[in-house]
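PT: before anyone asks, these are the final sequences, not the draft ones from last week. 537 residues across everything. Please model them as a single complex and drop the result in this thread when it's through.
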Amino acid sequence: MTMDESATASRDASSGRTVDDPSSTTTSTSTATSTPTLRAVDIQHGYGSETVLETVSLSIDAGEVVAIIGPSGVGKTTLLRLLALFEQPRDGALEYDGTDVWEITTQQRLAFRRRIGMVFQDASLFDASVRRNAEYGLHVRQSWIDRLRREFADLVGLRDGTSEALEALDVVGLADELDRHASSLSGGEAQRVAFARALAFDPDVLLLDEPTSDLDPRNTAVIEDAVREASERGIGVAIATHDMNQARRVADRVAVLLGDGIIEVGETKTMFEDPEDPRTRKFIDGELIY
Amino acid sequence: MADCSDCLGQAPHVAAIAPLQSEFPFEWIYIRSIIEVSLYVSLVAVALSTLLSIPVALVLGFTEFRGKGFLRSVITTGMGFPSVVVGLSVLFLVSNQGPLGSLELIFTTEAMILSQLVLATPVIMGVSLAAVSSVDQQVRDAAFAMGGTRLDVALVTIKEARYGLVTAVLAGFGRAISEIGSVLIVGGNIVGSDGESYTRTLTTAIRVEARNGQFDTAFLLGAILVVLVLLVNALVIRLGGTNGGYR
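LR: through. Structure below.
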C-alpha cells in the first residue's frame, strides 16, 4: 500500500492515530500545534531500477521520539539516510522548518545538515580516542584557525575535552573514558560513544538506525535512557528498529514501514493496542513475515 | 673538470665536462655531495609525487566514472615499469629536440627529479589507492553525518588510512633512492673536478666505484645508503604513522 492509499485509512488526531498526511499540519496528538522540525513529503526513492521507498511521508517534531518499525530490508536505513540528507530523493520534498532542503544551495543545505545527528547500526568510530570521536561534530563546525589551534593544543597536551563533548559522554556514562582509544572499547561502549558523538553538537534532530541491534540489555538500556534525555532536551528523535518492545518503551509515535512505504503512523499505545491496518497487527504479533 | 662517466650526449651547459675520469680520491666533499644530491632528488620527487598521488587516490577510491578500471590498470602497470624505459622517455622529453628541450634540463638534478617522479608516482598512487579504498564506507558516512563537508570526509579518510599512506610514501622513497637506471641516463652521473657531485647519486656512485675496483668506497657508500633509508623510514613512521597528532 502506498502512502496515498494509506492516507485514506488515516483517522483524526483525537483517535490517537494518523498517517502523516503531507497536506496536514497535524502530525500527532501530543504536538498537534507545533511546526514539524523535519518533514518528508511524499518522498520516493530507489537504486537503479529498484524502488525502495514509494511515496513516504513522515514528520519529526521537536522533542518527540518516532519509532520507525519494519522488517529488515524494508527501507528503514534508506529513509533515515534521506532524512539525514545523504542523498536527494528521486521524488517528493524534504522540509526542514518549512524549507525544502533540496531547493537551496549546498552551503545553505550544509547549515541544515549540521542540525541533524545520526547514529548508525555499527558504531563506525574513528581510529582515535573517545574524546576525539565525541568532539568530531564540534570540530567540523569550527573555523580552520580554531581547528589548527586545537590540534596544536592536543599536540602539546594542553587540552581537556570540551564541555559539550564531556556532557554528551556523561549522558552515556563514559565521561571518565576520555583518553581510551576507540579500538579498546566493547561493542556496547563504542555504540554509546557514537551516540555521544551525535549528541555533543546539540542537534535538533537525531536519527538512530537500529542503534541497539547488536547490544546487550545493559547497553541497550543506557542508549534508551539517552534517547529519553535527548527528547527531554527538545531534540526530535527518529529511531529505526525491528524491536517492538523498544519501540513501545521509547517512542511517542510509531510509523510502520512495510512493503514500499509507511502504512500507518500513530501514538505508540494506540498502535500497539489497536492498530488500524491489519498488517500492522500482524507485524507486531510476528505473524507477518517479509 | 668534471667526470661524466655515463653521459649519453653533450648538452651545451655541460660542455666543460672533461674526458672520462672515473677515479676520485676519497674525500668528505665527495661523499657529502653525493648524499645531498641523492636525498635532494629523492625527497623532492617523493614529496611532489605524494602531493599528486593522494588526491588522485582519494578521487579514484570514492568516485565512479567511465574508464576508472582502465586508470587503475595503468597505475598498477606503472608500479612495475622498467626504470631504464622511464629514463629514456624523460631523456627524450628534456633533450634539445624534446618538448622540454628549451628548459635545458638535461643532465640536471631537475631532470633526475622528473624521472624519479615518474617512477615513484605509480607506486605511491597504487599503494595509497589500496589504503584509502580500505577505509570503511560507514566511517566516511559518520564524518558526513556529523556535519562534515567533502573536505572533512577526505581528511577523515586520510587519517584513517594513514598507516597505508605512510607505507605508500616509504615504498615510493625506496624506489626513488635505490633507482639507478633512469638517473644515470637523464643525470649523466656528473662529478666536478673538485670531487663535488652534480648529478651523481649514491647508487650511481656505487656502480662507478665498484666498476673501478674501489670496493671499500663502494661498500661505504652502500652502507650510507642503507642507513639513510632506515633513518628516513624511521622519521616518516614517527611523524605520520604512529601517534603523530591523532590521539
